[in-house]
Batch of 2 targets.
Target 1
Amino acid sequence: MGRRPDAGWRVVFLMLVLAAATGFVIAPYLIFFVAPVLPELGWIQKIFFFHVPCAWAMFLSAFVCAAGSLAFLFKQRRWGDELAAAAAELTVVFGVLVLVTGPLWARKAWGKYWDWDVRLTTVAILFLIFVAVLLARRYGGPASHRIAAGLALFGAADVPLVYISVKLWRTIHPQTTVVTSMHPGMRAAFFVSLGLFTLLFVLLLWIRLDLERSRTTLDGLVVIATEDSNRASRN
Amino acid sequence: MTHTSSLLASLLLWITPGEGMATAADYQPYSPTASAAEVSAPLFVVLAYSLIWLVLLGFVVSVWWRQRRVAQELVQLRRQLQRGEP
């Protein structure tokens, strides 16, 4: 197996799992039973409580991937490559959630699932860049990890553009002020959901990073086995 | 340096909305269309919520499955190395 976390880290992990499990109960309760249903938006507005935290987790993953990629590209840190691989996959996973929940809300709110609006398009580009990162890692050949790291930096550069797009250009997407100007009764539900998705991001990154470390150990053993085999055949 | 500054200035001018262009201030709140009124909001909320947990559960299962496969390969390889097999 890879480098196993020691007992202390295992306890931290279990505590985070426990906190997430509590969040799974509290967040839906707050969203569906405490947060008011605003007459002008109706029930469909409940999607906002998952959609925004998913987008936040997607942006966080993209930044973590970029940090790992920087450490790998410029400092040749192995952990940077492992972190980038794990975070890139999470960016795609949370990206799928953003691109599924958003259109479901839009169908009711705008009457259509998709619009080539600047916010929607920049998010789609961000998602596709990270799909490209995963494809480059898988099929890019000998320099695949370096190519993927470079692509991830481009992807992370798209995140601020996604955020400011609604401020710069005309858009049908709600503005960023939707969070700050939220109805006071919705705040608890929103921030608990945001905390839950941040926690989920940390836990998923943890388990995915563990897999990447196991793979690194496996690759190291394969190299040793190949060298042993070559030495045996020479003797 | 001058070239870089002029390039940055051109880029800023390019991304800054010019006169006559629509800006964020022109944002129009949506007005649901007739076809949107036919959509069942609770059904879409349940659908979105279920899809989120299904995708996340799928990801956890996929990581667990890949981790198990790597662990099996590691055990096999360690045995081979201990036996001194090529």
Target 2
Amino acid sequence: MKLLKSIVRPNKVDEVKDALAKLNISGMTVTEVRGHGKQKGHTAIYRGKEYNVSLLPKMEIEVVVPDTIAEDAIKAIVQAARTGEIGDGRVFVLPVAESYRIRTGELES
Amino acid sequence: MSMMRPASTGAQPPRGGASAGQVPPSPDTASAGQAPLKASLDVARHELRAAITRGAGGRAALEHYADRVDALIRQLFTDAGGDAGPVAIVALGGYGRRHLCLHSDIDLLVLFGGGIGSAEERFVHSFLNPLWDLGVVIGHQVREIEDFQVLERDNPEFLLALLDARPVAGVRSVFERFGTIFHQPETHAFILRSLLALIDERHARFNGTLYQLEPDVKDAPGALRDLTATRTIALLTDPLLLRRGPADAARFDDAEDFLLRVRSTLHLECGRNQNVLSHELQERTAETLGYPGAEPRLRVERLMSDYFRHARIVSRSLEWAKRTAPVPVGTNLGLSRDGVRFIDPMQAARNPSSWLGAFQSALDEGTEVSEEALSCIQQHVDRYRADDFFADAHDRTALLRFLRPRPGLYARLSQMHDCGLLGRVFPEFQAISWRVVRDFYHKYTVDEHTLLTIRNLERLITTDSGDRLRFKGILADLQEPELLVLALLFHDVGKWRDDDHALESERMAEHVLDRLHIADEQRETVLFLIRHHLRMSLAAFRRDTEDPDIVKQFASLVGTEERLKMLCVMTLVDVQAVSPETLTPWKAELLWRLYVDTYNHLTQRYGDERIERSEAGLNELLANRPEDVTPGEISRFLEGLPQRYLHVFPREAIYRHIWLARDIKPDEVHLSLERKGAVWSLAVATLDKPFLFSNICGVLSSFGMNILRGHAFTNPNGLVLDAFEFTDEERFLELNRDAHTQLLRVMQDVVSGRAEVTARLRGREQGILQARSGQRFAPLVHTDNKASGRYTILDIVAGNALGLLYRISRVISRHGCDVDLVLIATEGEKAIDVFHITKAGAKLTEAEQIALTSDLQRTLEGTV
């Protein structure tokens, strides 16, 4: 199993969700986050006064997928979230050792 | 002692007052014609003396005596020819209450319906002289009705006496008109405050105790004055107050009758206005009043124990009234411990347009509307229809004032909702009462969600939380925040249906705005906000705001900064009212960024978006054009102006501008000036030339005008159109008949170079009133070459001061730059100006920008 942790533009969340749904991946966690990568924010000017927008609002989507479809899922996320501009985000892939269902306590494989 | 005292100014006889101390001419000089009058006065006095001797000089006897004196006054009034004119004789103070003691002054007001001339003065003399001749001690005042338009704050005793005013002779309608003018809530409140102060002063003279061995039955604590004061407090605040007091009405009346009988006896015994119940007089009074007892000591003890018993009742009642009386806060409204209530609930029930006043007063006083008043409204509200609450323009203005966001508004609106008033005033709002819409995010019924948006708005006013301060600033800048509240109230009323609610809300709000007769411009704003209340959150949270096209589209939707600000604040408070968790810092940040980007787009890029022949807005202008304006003239005028021009000005203003620009020749200036409340609008049309903008601003400042907002436009043919809104704090335009001509002449002279504005301004700038008390804001100057395709954008934020625009634009012109477009705004003490400038038709180079900004910075800091 893999944990896919994707940081995407806020307006791309729905498209990513739809793309994952097509792969029958429906369980996910979505969090509002702020941060920056290469796109170091920019300086906005309001009424002559500069103010720094260093941490940009992004969305984080976490899904856990079987190893077999991990690559398809990553592709789907990248295609859905991509605009080609700086600031499109990242997908981190982490191995998942074990996973338990809280309601029943059973180990999932 | 008389309650009157001479008027402090302008006391030329007979106007003003005469004190009772005035020595009347000897009765012997009374003319023969007075004999019957003298006889009837003697009879009246004789009767009163007899009653007093019997120990019955109480209320009934005094009222009878007052009636006799009334008849005498009426006779004298007729004899003096009073029936000829609009004049009334009014009894005041004790005489007004008909408690006229044997040697009390007779307090009179001679009240004229019109002005006082020599005929009126003659009448006053011929009316008063016989009274003096009869040996009557008079305290008189002479007034015109109009005098009562201004509250005589320096004479509270007189105002108190006026509360007992009773017409005795003359024209009834004159007296009634006086009553209407005099009985105002502010007057009542002032009298009440004065009365409380007078009571304290008087009590201090008696060391604050009623247990005097030789009490003054008029002035001592617990004596007659306190009794009257208690009744006055009730009259001014709550006529039913004494019913709930420590003494029932019968005991209170007993006390009064007793005190009056004692006082009458003192007057009879002493033969003058003497009110101290001294040891010596105690014996004689006890005897007259028929106290039993074998020896004088016992009779006196019984008298005095009666006195203290009655005085204690009066004293306790007064203290109770002082503690519990509601403070008058409006017509028929009193403020008591449980909030604002109706002084006379019956009257309130008949007058639904007065109900809003209770909520407004509660807001003003930082309290609530009392349960009692709410029940009264709840009980009667169903008898009235929506229109009954806003019968006239005054009621409608009052509603808009009520809706200005401030702490407490949510709580008052909730009270209005709970008692059924809100739903009755706005049946549209009733449609969402307790309405449940099931979705994943809303936590409250639609009506409560709506009211919570208003609570969020009022909390924003006082917030000091870091990330909300920027939105607080936007809210503080709004010119008509009540429109935002109006929009919030109705933004979700369409949710009574299950489909697209924004359009349905807008449709329903149209009915509300019709009923309120809201002006067109304001109406458009409210409907715009309702129709688009979801658009900003959609764009901010669901669209890529990095994309300039998204910002551009959103900017063209809102059109002006004012609407952008309103929609931004509306979105913030709306999202926040969905549930406590909905407005995350993350969402607030996205919203703010969209706001800033759109604001910058509106103020810095509008020069790039010019009106073209195919512009959609043009059709409407062409279709509605006045007869003498041709389609060609309209398009020639508009072509090449920024599209913003069409957003900012209503159709009528555009036609006016077209007329102004017609046949204009070099060095000519055409003006149109209009007043809207405290703000004047000036439109100036002329042909472009160097230093033009600076000269125009300079002329306005030289007349002392404080420029609040404005636009300067230049079209490609060199036509300049400047529109300013300013206040005229020195009232030059109002006070000078030819102000318009003077302004035009000076403007033409300066623009054509025949006159110099610098000299005109210098005196003012150096004037004492303009002395700058230290720069409150560090001035900001910023240039940008990227925002606009055509212009260098110059942003300036500085402390507002007379001639500021003149000084800034002069520096710009001195650098050889053309001022093509200007956007002027002020927020409180801050001036925010955006200039679109070019030099020789191109943007400024880096070096030119640096030179200009540093020069401007020095000018603004006052170092050059």
